[in-house]
Specification:
Layout: E1 7-11, E2 17-19, H1 22-25, E3 32-36, E4 42-46, H2 47-58, H3 65-76, E5 79-81, E6 88-90, H4 93-99, E7 104-109, E8 114-118, H5 119-144
Antiparallel strand pairs: 1-7, 2-6, 3-4, 3-5, 4-8, 7-8
Subcellular location: Cytoplasm, Nucleoid
Protein name: Transcriptional regulator MraZ
Keywords: Cytoplasm, DNA-binding, Repeat, Transcription, Transcription regulation
């Protein structure tokens, strides 16, 4: 099982390539899938995790309009990326535009995948989330126990 943890700040280069933290590179497969994700970020999955996610999505009832919209968004906004020899991935222009990226990014471990955030958006989200962290923990305790 892959486990992505930590927070790293990097910048996109002139060609929209992002350096992937060295700690993550050893866990990645040759194919990496990057898609628009929840809360205004991108999510990057190694091939096996991506295939497992798609399998779960395929098991949802397609007669439900919300399911169709969600599946369409996750898979339609996905792109296959690969690490170059310097440990970078090329992020598609449409993903960067749609999520409001500039140059500064934050790469955040999220268990079986990692997220790529525009730095400004991540800092705003972290402040709001940090203020509610204890409330979230109390609400989630029932699910965890």
């Amino acid at each position: 099982m892959r486990l992505f943890t930590g927070e790293y700040r990097h910048h996109l280069d002139a060609k929209n390539r992002l350096m992937i933290p060295a700690k993550y590179r050893d866990q990645l497969t040759p194919k990496i899938y990057v898609t628009e994700w929840l809360d205004g970020c991108l999510a990057a999955f190694a091939q096996e995790e991506w295939e497992a996610l798609v399998e779960k999505l395929n098991g949802l009832p397609i007669t439900n309009a919300k399911v169709r919209a969600f599946v369409r968004r996750i898979t339609g906004k996905a792109d296959e990326c690969a690490l170059d020899s310097q440990g970078r991935i090329l992020l598609p222009q449409f993903q960067l535009r749609d999520e409001g990226f500039e140059k500064a990014c934050v790469v955040v471990g999220a268990s079986n995948h990692f997220e790529i955030w525009p730095e400004k958006k991540y800092d705003e989200y972290s402040q709001i989330g940090g203020d509610n962290f204890e409330n979230f923990a109390e609400d989630l305790t029932e699910m965890l126990l």
